[in-house]
Write a structure and sequence with these properties.
By secondary structure, the chain is an all-alpha fold. The chain contains 15 helices and 2 strands. The chain folds into 2 domains: about 45 residues, no CATH class; about 230 residues, MetI-like (MetI-like fold).
Length: about 325
């Protein structure tokens, strides 16, 4: 009886609520946590959420940076569809995304497959192919790239040796956009590294079994490699698509605010910048920014919807 009574007392004591000291200690820990998070919270409020809310409000106003915003409702959004330059920027950006993303991913996957095999100097080649991605979308890189593709420059001279005369890509409306596509494909380092990580996860037993069955290299690549790394392909496709919609620096250096030559490099972001900081139409530029966000969101949703038919995850029951 004594043992049972003592156990009951122990259980009752353990069920008692925490004392004032423990509650104070917990509240102090919570306060310390919020204190450490305060730089991030202040940053996201002042640098992200605040500007986003302000931009959303300005998109419904007529604002020129010098006078107070005047509420105009949906006029800015309706005016876009009557703006020939806005429609031109949408077409140029869509064409660039449709060309740059698949070409860049195809080149990155090809290089990753080559560097995935055991060979001498593999680490050097990986670093060499990843190097251009470290430069990023810098002004100096865009200037050098434009100089290389100008009339009577390096690329033009090389093409002349095989009988191709273009007169320089930078000033040719037929090749100016392709020049920017090649610049994007040249910076394939980031998706290449992700592809390499995905290729390392493919079981070698699958290749050995397929080889025993007489499958060639192309058949093994098509039937084993592509399905097994399809989640990695989708991840790279999603990131590169979103990034391609935001291209600005290289296109601005090559074509300027008017998208020269002949408007072939008038990207959406360049026209947005020109309307906001060139014409001081901040209300219209804010509406353009939100239309870009909506467009990227719709494309992202489309990619997620279509991914169900070709992205394979281990354990899927199809």
């Amino acid at each position: 009886m004594t043992t049972i009574t003592s156990n009951r007392r122990t259980d009752a004591g353990s069920a008692r609520p925490a004392g004032p000291r423990k509650r104070a200690r917990r509240s102090g820990d919570g306060l310390a946590g919020y204190l450490f998070l305060s730089p991030w919270l202040i940053g996201i409020l002042l640098l992200t959420l605040g500007p986003m809310v302000t931009s959303l409000y300005l998109s419904f106003t007529d604002y020129d940076l010098f006078n107070s915003p005047q509420w105009v409702g949906l006029d800015n959004y309706q005016r876009m569809f009557d703006d020939a330059r806005w429609l031109k920027s949408v077409r140029v950006t869509a064409l660039y995304v449709a060309l740059a993303v698949p070409i860049k991913l195809a080149c990155a996957l090809a290089v990753a497959v080559l560097l995935n095999n055991e060979r001498r100097g593999r680490a050097f080649y990986r670093a060499a192919f990843y190097g251009p991605s470290l430069i990023g979308a810098s002004v100096s890189l865009a200037i050098v790239w434009k100089a290389m593709f100008s009339d009577d420059a390096v690329v033009d001279r090389l093409l002349r040796t095989v009988g191709i005369h273009t007169g320089g890509w930078a000033g040719n409306p037929d090749f100016s956009l392709l020049m920017l596509v090649l610049l994007a494909a040249w910076q394939l380092g980031a998706p290449m590294v992700i592809f390499l990580a995905g290729l390392k996860q493919v079981p070698k037993e699958l290749y050995e079994a397929a080889e025993v069955d007489g499958a060639g290299r192309w058949r093994r690549f098509r039937s084993i490699t592509l399905p097994m790394i399809s989640p990695v392909i989708f991840f790279n496709l999603l990131l590169e698509t979103i990034n391609s919609f935001q291209v600005f620096t290289s296109a601005y250096i090559v074509g300027g605010p008017n998208g020269q030559p002949a408007g072939t490099t008038l990207f959406y972001t360049i026209y947005l910048f020109d309307r906001g900081f060139g014409d001081y139409r901040m209300g219209y530029a804010s509406a353009m920014a939100w239309m870009l966000l909506a467009g990227v969101g719709l494309v992202t949703l489309f990619l997620f919807r279509t991914a169900r038919g070709w992205v394979y995850y281990s354990g899927d029951k199809r």
